[in-house]
Structures are given as C-alpha cells and as structure tokens.
Amino acid sequence: MIRRLLSASFAFMLFAPLGYAADSLDPELREKTRRSVDAGLNYLRAQQAPDGSVARSVGITALSLRAFLESHRGYNEGDGAFYGPKIDFDVTDAIGRKWQCATIQLDYQLPERFDLHYVGADNAHNRPIVVHRAIFGSFERFLGMIIEHFAGAWPLWLAPVQAVVLPIADRHLEYAQTVQQALAGRGLRVEVDARVEKIGYKIREAQLQKVPYMLVIGDREVAEGAVSVRNRSKGDLGARPLAEFVEAAAGEAARRELAS
C-alpha cells in the first residue's frame, strides 16, 4: 500500500509542478541515523503494546521506501525527519544550484500523539501512518526557480502575453483588432501594438519581450484574411489563414508543452 501511494505521488509531482525540470530532478530518500531511529522507536514502544508492532511497521515502511528508490537516484541516511523517513525532490536551477522542492514524508508520531486508529481487515484496531505531501515545497522558491529556468521565454501556455498583433499602418488597425478578438475568443492573451512606429521596431520590441508569437498585418493579410506569423525562436513562419492560426495556437496552448 505504501509503495503504491508513493508511486502515485511521485508520478503526480513529475506531471504537475516539477515536470518542467524533470531532467534535473533528483529524488532522494532521507532517513535519520540509526541512533536517532532507535531513540524514536524507544519512544514509540513506550506508547504502544510491547509486541513490537510499531517497530515492525517502521522497518517495513523504510524498506519499502528504499526499494522504491532503487531504480531512481538516491538514498541518504542521516538527513531525514525525526518522525520518519521522507523523499525529497531536489531540483537543479538554471545556474547549477540545488534546491529542495517537493517532499513526501511518513509520520509515525502524529498518529500516536492523537491516538488515531482504524479497524482493519482483521477486525482489530490498527495504527495508521500519516503521509505529509508538499507538491511545491516553498511556493515562492518554486516560482523563483521556474522564472530563472525559462529566463523570461515562457512556453505559450504560461506566457503573460501569448501573441502581439503588429499592424504596419493605421489602415490595418481595424483588421488587427479583429485578429485580437478571434484569438481572445479562444482564451489566448493577445495585445495589439498600435503605436506609430516602424514595423521592424515593433518586431524587435516584441522579440526583446520574448512574446511567443508576433502577427504582422499588412495590405495582403487584410485582403486575404490571413496573418504573417513570426515565432520568437523560429523566426518568420510565413502567412497563414487567420482561422488556421487560431486553431493551431489554441491547440498548442491546450497541450501545455514546455518547449518554447
């Protein structure tokens, strides 16, 4: 049961917040030293029946944790919590520093302190184990790492501004607003740069702001109901029908891909 629970939690942490850094993710089992574990067991034995059931539970669970991580990356005896073993997820940031983010911890003391129990399949009272699970760890630390990781070049689905529409002249502004409305109707965050500036300057500004898509609007795009698409990393992608680009951009955002 413990192994299934840990496996599910491990997969969820990879899928949700830490998936962006899966290549630099370092799960590690951490336990206290043998002396500290013995001291903890002596405390539990004083609170529990003398048949050693708590000690066996602690030992079996620790072995399950070790087996779980045999196919992964780390076991660190001496760095666990006083109340039980834990798995910490360390992430290496953009400049090579290691930070602890998520954690899964097994707690044997709270059930004792609160005198918790459940009726098991044996129709007897059994002592549960409390599982502490933090998906982000420190949320502020996580945000700091992910901002440094992407260095402002957010994937489409995370970018504050996902596309900017760049009309070449004032006569293209009305169609530019139509493009904005079409994209916004699919839930995309879009702005129109209506400043009276050269188109090259507008493109450069959007590129410096690392906007994923720049949509240039000129006479041909207005006449054909199209947009001239620029990607911040791939450059000029050519003209595409507006409806086609809207569907493609909405699909990319929905997939939540991490590559920019």
Summary, kept brief:
With 260 residues, this protein is α/β, with parallel strands linked by helices.
Descriptors for this entry?
24% strand, 9 helices, 260 residues, five-stranded mixed sheet, BirA Bifunctional Protein, domain 2, 2 domains, single chain, Rossmann fold, alpha/beta, 40% helix, 12 strands
Helical content, roughly?
40-55%
The whole-number mean of residue pLDDT values reads 76
| Rg calculated over all Cα atoms | 27 Å
Largest sheet: 5 strands, mixed
CATH class of the largest domain: Alpha Beta
Q: How large a portion of the residues is in β-strands, by DSSP E?
A: 15-25%
In the CATH hierarchy, the third-tier topology of the largest domain is known as BirA Bifunctional Protein, domain 2
Question: What is the chain-wise order of helices and strands?
Answer: HEHHEEEHEEEHEHEHEHEEH
| CATH homolog superfamily of the largest domain | Bira Bifunctional Protein, Domain 2
Q: What is the number of strand segments? A: 12
Q: What is the straight-line distance between the termini?
A: 39 Å
Strand order of the largest sheet: 2-1-3-4-7
Q: In terms of per-residue confidence, which ranges show pLDDT below 50 for 5 or more consecutive residues? A: 17-23, 27-65
Write the CATH architecture name of the largest domain. 2-Layer Sandwich
Structural category: alpha/beta
**Count, helices:** 9
Number of domains: 2
- Please state the overall shape, judged from the principal axes of the Cα atoms: elongated
